Amino acid sequence: MSRARTQADPEAIDRSLDKASIEHYERLAAEADRHLDQLAAQAPLKDTTLEEQLRRRGISRREFLKMTAVMTATMALPSMFDLRVARAAELATRLPVIWQELQSCTGNSMALIRNSNPGVDELLLDLISLEYSEVLMAPSGQAAEDVLEAAIEKYRGAYIAVFEGSVPMADNGNFLTIGPAGHTGIQIVKHVAENAAAVIAAGTCAAYGGIPAARPNPTAALGIADFLNTQRINKPVVNLPACPVSSTNVVGTILEYALFGRLPSLDAFGRPLWAYGDRIHDKCERRGHFDAGQFVEGWSDTEGLKKGLCLFKVGCKGPMAYNNCGVVRYNDGTSWPIMAGHGCIGCSEPGFWDTLTPFEVPLAGRVYPIPFGLDSDADTIGAVALGAAAVGIAAHAGATLVKSATEQRAAKKSEAKKEQ
């Protein structure tokens, strides 16, 4: 795609944007064009092209542009970036990626490769030059180590390092050794990260230590960013927590790097704002029931569960967790935990296993330690910690109690009349 086709069309700019926003996005667009031109000048790293992949899968150019437009919206960019994101997808073959497994269950890798529909995520993961991935590659043992060393040497300072899993520090790192030479996770991460252009921590274990770092943390597990800080390795790191992480968020982060040559804007916990800027609660399809005070009262409340009522009172952490999984969903976008009837466990939050458990214990009336450093029960979390949007928790819970008391008094009066 030529640069001329990606120039900003004033008619295509979202009319809802104010003048300052339009100027901001026009500067971003110029930045993207410069970087995409630089990327286009590089030789592709793979023989296959996007057009060949589209033709092989029976996907028209129009269908592909629709998919990249969805990705553009997911990345919180206006429509003037649609063609730029499509061009970035075409140039993704110029981005070498090394994917390293650590102390993990490989669940994030499994989630990425189990897309059955030929969506943009799968297409781009096929196109990206994945130079090393223990889960996907054929070589093993010394042959696999040779592939890793060759990739690091060939693309030194230019590749994206993706880590899955935490880094165990105890016993000099011997809780995790990989390959015939028995290299520890400590040695591997230092070696791979030091020579990378940027680092992605895929999944909660890589981002914050995850379940391996939960109390009592016998392996002294650390997330990637914390580990690099202990080693004084200064590399840009983006955290993509969740268990597992959405393939959309991985691909979107790589695409943003292709667009601008840098990682996305991050929140206080190192997460991309476009993916983790909103609470689960605010994008939940059960939010209407929450606002109406309609809750599943317990796991034996079969009627409430059948009606799809709000799961807050049975332990849903949606009001305390930030992620876009309710928008992009899992399994080809078909569903996600809350939609399937299980409350959010807050797996994208730092230290979630310790701070947001036990999962299934009802919240109502229980003192609950939340990530904001306050102790509250279900009736005060909204007012104290979650802001005006969730103040209704107290009102709804109070209304439920009032309704229950009123019904009890009415029942007693009715019984008294019958006895008379």
- CATH topology description of the largest domain: Rossmann fold
CATH architectural type of the largest domain: 3-Layer(aba) Sandwich
Low-confidence stretches: 1-13, 368-407
The chain-level mean pLDDT equals 82
What structural class should be given to the helix and strand makeup? Answer: alpha/beta
Outline the secondary-structure elements.
Blueprint: H1 19-40, H2 50-57, H3 61-74, H4 82-90, E1 96-101, H5 107-113, H6 120-127, E2 129-133, H7 141-154, E3 160-164, E4 167-168, E5 177-178, E6 183-184, H8 185-194, E7 198-202, H9 204-208, E8 221-222, H10 224-230, E9 237-240, H11 247-260, H12 273-276, H13 287-291, H14 302-306, H15 325-328, H16 352-355, E10 368-369, E11 375-376, H17 381-384, H18 392-419
Helix pairs in contact: 3-4, 4-11
Structure description:
This protein folds into two domains: 23-276, NADH:ubiquinone oxidoreductase-like, 20kDa subunit (Rossmann fold), CATH 3.40.50.700; 280-404, Cytochrome-c3 hydrogenase, C-terminal domain (Cytochrome-c3 Hydrogenase, Chain A, domain 2, Irregular), CATH 4.10.480.10. It is 41% helix and 9% strand. Strands 2-1-3-7-9 form a five-stranded parallel β-sheet, with helices on both faces. α4 crosses α11. A hairpin with a 4-residue loop joins β5 and β6 (183-184). The protein starts with 18 loop residues before the first helix and ends with a helix. It is built from 18 helices and eleven strands. It is α/β, with parallel strands linked by helices and 420 residues long. The radius of gyration is 25 Å and the shape is globular.
